[in-house]
Amino acid sequence: MKTLLIAYHSMTGGTRQMVEAAARGAASEPTVRVRLLPAPDAQAADLLEADGYIFGTPENLAAMAGLMKDFFDRTYYPALDRISGRPYATLICAGGDGHNAARQVERIATGWRLKAIADPLIVCTHAQTPEAILAPKVIGPDDLMRCEELGAALAAGMSIGVF
């Protein structure tokens, strides 16, 4: 049995919807156990015990969310040189383009020597005013389907040993 860890942060619900969709997709693979953990709860031991990862974060101030950064800060060195070669994917709920947040996650994953299985999946909500940024998000069905497909693809690849 393989384990897929999905570590995420969500303030307004958008990222949570995305990671839950990815978890549904991954759960379709019977040989993969899915662990969905909020970033504050995820520990280095969770990384070490997992065979693959999905990192989900909102874009905040053109960067990954602070609680995701905290997760990476707490787990980076304990996991360094211990998770090399494992597959990962990134989900970003962005008000803008989300690319800087994606680059930040990619730099950390590169340091861990993880293997990206896809380009970062960025969903843009176009939230640009304080009211829109703080409002609860609703991710559309097409974007949720893309998240679900990404989760399923990662889990299938883990199951058959492609990644």
Please describe what this structure looks like.
By secondary structure, this protein is α/β, with parallel strands linked by helices. It contains 6 helices and 7 strands; from the N terminus they run βαβαββαβαββαα. Strands 1, 2, 3, 4, 5, 6 and 7 form a 7-stranded mixed sheet that branches. Strand 1, helix 1 and strand 2 form a beta-alpha-beta unit. Helix 1 packs across helix 6.
Strand-helix topology:
Layout: E1 2-8, H1 14-27, E2 32-38, H2 44-49, E3 52-60, E4 63-64, H3 66-79, E5 87-94, H4 99-112, E6 115-116, E7 121-124, H5 130-134, H6 141-160
Parallel strand pairs: 1-2, 1-3, 3-5, 5-6, 5-7
Antiparallel strand pairs: 3-4
Quote the distance from N terminus to C terminus. 14 Å
The radius of gyration is 15 Å
Q: Note the total helix count.
A: 6
**How do the helices and strands follow one another from N- to C-terminus?**
EHEHEEHEHEEHH
Give the beta-strand count: 7
Low-confidence runs (pLDDT<50, min 5 residues)? none
Helix content: 40-55%
- The amount of beta strand, in percent, is 15-25%
**Largest sheet features:** 7 strands, mixed
**Overall shape:** globular
* Helix vs. strand class: alpha/beta
List keywords for this structure.
single chain; globular; 163 residues; seven-stranded mixed beta sheet; 45% helix; 7 strands; alpha/beta
Short description:
This protein is of the alpha/beta class. It contains six helices and seven strands.
